[in-house]
Design a protein that fits this description.
By secondary structure, this protein is α+β, with helices and mostly antiparallel strands. The protein has a domain at about 70-110. About 25% of the residues lie in helices and about 25% in strands. The chain contains 3 helices and 6 strands, in the order E-E-H-H-E-E-E-H-E. It has helices spanning about 35-45, 50-70, 115-120, and strands spanning about 1-10, 20-30, 75, 80-85, 105-110, 125. The strands form 2 sheets. It has a 3-stranded mixed beta sheet, with no helix packed on it. The model is unreliable at about 135-149 (pLDDT under 50).
């Protein structure tokens, strides 16, 4: 698996950097979005289920996840990973002074399981050459603009 990246110039954030200096940083770019319908079709092809069955199961998973996350459970989905709800708060000196308005916005944390951890280990990177605006590609196809995918 290879991830596409481009280089972007941003301010140098190092402590010893000269004021106004900039460095090039890599930015990973997703080129396509896998739509839900296509995802369900791909899962159906790999199993004995129909597309409607896949959608029904995913909808059921989401319904159970919503219910159990609201109850504070950690949801373990095998090799996929775990989901849990977390929320920090502002601190107070005395326990009696604390109330629920001190909580920050709740977040859902995902911890990848064995399969996704392995996917991360196997990744490679490939430079994505974008054609500058106004330049035409040398061999057919449409014009590509920086930042547009």
């Amino acid at each position: 698996m290879s991830l596409n990246y481009r280089l972007v110039r941003r301010p140098d954030m190092r402590k010893d950097a000269a004021e106004g200096s900039k460095l090039y940083y890599a930015q990973v770019r997703s080129l396509k979005k896998l739509k839900f319908e296509k995802f369900c079709n791909m899962v159906a092809v790999r199993s004995s289920a129909f597309v409607g069955d896949v959608k029904l199961v995913i909808d059921g998973i989401l319904s159970v996840m919503e219910e159990r996350l609201e109850e504070g459970d950690v949801i373990q989905l095998g090799r996929l990973g775990n989901f849990r709800m977390v929320a920090g708060s502002k601190g107070v000196e005395n326990e009696a002074d604390f109330n629920t308005s001190f909580f920050n916005k709740a977040r859902i944390v995902f911890s990848p399981g064995t399969m996704l951890t392995q996917v991360k280990k196997n990744v490679t990177f490939e430079h994505l050459d974008l054609v500058p605006a106004g330049d035409k590609p040398s061999s057919g196809g449409g014009e590509e603009k920086p930042g547009e995918l």
